[in-house]
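Please decode residue identities from the backbone states below.
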């Protein structure tokens, strides 16, 4: 070989520019398959997400409130039917109903407690990986849900009808009443204390003034609230397929000869509408004169005997149970106390007790009763006379803490001037029903 030819071949072997094209040619094929496999895996992940959502829906469909009233077999059939119908309609998924497992288990010791587990296996079809013999990718998942029966509940409503509940429910009402009574914020119903003029110029008591001007009083708003709660209870019970009963009691003075003595307006009953109607009979204190419920029969104005009311309610209420439909079980029991919280009985030294006796609340709670308290705030500005300022006002701070301690966990609600008492009571009812469900 001549030196010239040797030089040419040397240059050819030394030139590496053509190797790039060759390397790229060899690399294109695996890069293409790698990209395709990424796409296939992404499709499989999306398919699994959709299948998991279907599994969730299937499991939940077996524990709806209506489905809880049906058998385990019916619940399983419902979950299977929903899953099969939706999974079969997915594109890019090979699904065989034989690869679906639905497990429904129940306990009935404290009401029906149902757990549903939906598990599946399927295949996500590949687009690119099939060239390499991978026609599909396996996907699988599982969903578990649990639900319990809503318990049967007895609602015992205890409404404070003492004179202090006859305070205007709005700022405008307070302003108007005090302007017409010379500064008193209470619509006192003392038929022989006619010291003010009503809207029509007739001399009457403060209650007559309030009614003539259509001033909404807290006792009136509380009665409306109980009516609203009964409507809500009927609707909620039907929705939850639970048996709700209710009864209504009022209290004020302890003396049996007064018109506001502890009274049962409705016994515990399934007829919630009748309880609503019975609310119309709840009336505020009707006194002959200040401190005297009747002529020549006075009680030192001890008009809020909450301890006496709690003792009597203990006798009136049935022993609570778990609220299940198991033979021999009894409804759960919730006492709803609607009050301004001022205890006015057994005055040592002439001063009111102010705070309710929380020991009575504790005793009830220890015996599986739950207590819901709606506090219609006792306002300092309502204390206009000298005796109240000297004896009630210094003890007012004790009222709310005692009511909070009386209430079961999460079942205390406070409402004050210009706030909706019915909305507050319905909110408290929702809390009571929800927490009852959670305690199962």
């Amino acid at each position: 070989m001549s030196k010239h030819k040797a030089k040419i071949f040397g240059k050819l072997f030394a030139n590496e520019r053509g190797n790039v094209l060759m390397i790229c040619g060899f690399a294109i094929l695996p890069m293409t398959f790698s990209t395709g496999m990424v796409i296939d895996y992404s499709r499989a992940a999306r398919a699994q997400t959709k299948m998991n959502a279907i599994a969730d829906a299937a499991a939940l469909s077996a524990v709806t409130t209506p489905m809880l009233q049906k058998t385990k077999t019916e619940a399983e059939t419902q979950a299977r039917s929903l899953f099969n119908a939706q999974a079969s309609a997915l594109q890019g998924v090979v699904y065989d109903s034989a690869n679906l497992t639905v497990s429904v288990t129940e306990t009935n010791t404290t009401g029906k407690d149902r757990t549903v587990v939906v598990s599946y296996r399927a295949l996500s079809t590949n687009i690119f990986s099939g060239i390499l013999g991978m026609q599909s990718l396996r996907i699988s998942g599982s969903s578990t849900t649990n639900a319990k029966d809503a318990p049967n509940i007895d609602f015992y409503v205890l409404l404070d009808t003492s004179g202090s509940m006859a305070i205007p429910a709005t700022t405008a009402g307070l302003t108007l009443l005090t302007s017409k009574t010379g500064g008193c914020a209470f619509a006192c119903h003392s038929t022989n204390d006619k010291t003010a003029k009503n809207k029509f110029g007739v001399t009457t008591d403060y209650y007559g003034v309030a009614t003539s001007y259509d001033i909404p009083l807290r006792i009136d708003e509380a009665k409306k609230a109980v009516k609203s709660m009964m409507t809500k209870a009927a609707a909620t019970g039907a929705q939850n397929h639970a048996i709700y009963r209710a009864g209504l009691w009022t209290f004020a003075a302890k003396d049996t000869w007064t018109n506001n003595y502890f009274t049962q307006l409705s016994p515990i009953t399934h007829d919630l509408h009748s309880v609503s109607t019975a609310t119309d009979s709840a009336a505020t204190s009707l006194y002959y004169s200040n401190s005297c419920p009747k002529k020549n029969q006075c009680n030192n104005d001890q008009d809020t005997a909450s301890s006496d009311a709690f003792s009597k309610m203990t006798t009136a209420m049935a022993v609570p149970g778990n609220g299940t439909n198991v033979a021999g079980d009894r409804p759960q029991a919730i006492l709803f106390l609607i009050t301004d919280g001022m205890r006015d009985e057994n005055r040592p030294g002439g001063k009111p007790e102010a705070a309710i006796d929380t020991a009575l609340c504790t005793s009830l709670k220890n015996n599986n009763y739950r207590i819901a308290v709606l506090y219609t705030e006792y306002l300092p500005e309502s204390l206009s006379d000298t005796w109240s300022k000297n004896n009630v006002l210094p003890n007012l701070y004790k009222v709310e803490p005692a009511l909070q301690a009386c209430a079961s966990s999460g079942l205390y609600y406070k409402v004050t001037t210009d706030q909706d008492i019915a909305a507050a009571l319905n909110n408290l009812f929702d809390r009571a029903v929800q927490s009852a469900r959670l305690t199962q």
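Observation: The first helix runs from residue 3 to 14.
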